[in-house]
Amino acid sequence: MPLRLSLIVLAALGLAACADAGDPAAPADAPAPPDVRTVLDAQERAFRDADMAALDGLWSADPDVVVFEQGGVDSSWAAYRDGHLGPELVALDSLDFRHRDVHVRTGDRLAVATGRYTLSAQHDGEPVESDGVFTTVFERADDGPWQIVHTHLSRPRR
């Protein structure tokens, strides 16, 4: 496991002990962190619209980005986009992808969102349905936007 990914995973686990934006123990004059949920919502729209340019803006181009999906591993955003997600979005019609039961923990430079997802679509005229759980890790450089650096999607065994 690359050092940066190891550090991201360790930091993400450490976020469980962080105060979230609504924590009364946080200083009253501390600025509210940017809303990670906004990035998740933009990702949903981009999936539904098969908008790869929008997705490129949401994901980090860092080569240490890793995607875990249904037991598979993509070693970068480009590998996931070009070899996995992009072809799926082209092949699916009437795609509806949603996050639900979302919980977000935010630190200074890392945030973690967990919850459930649902997906419905048509492929070659046949219905496609999936649901499961997700974890998405976000990173922010200085005061820049939150970008996705890791996601893990998992559905129940069939």
TrEMBL record:
Keywords: Signal. The keyword Signal applies. Residues 36-156 form the SnoaL-like domain. This is SnoaL-like domain-containing protein. InterPro entries: NTF2-like_dom_sf, SnoaL-like. Coiled coil: none annotated. It comes from the Bacteria. The keyword Transcription does not apply. Residues 1-21 form the signal peptide. It comes from Rubrivirga marina.
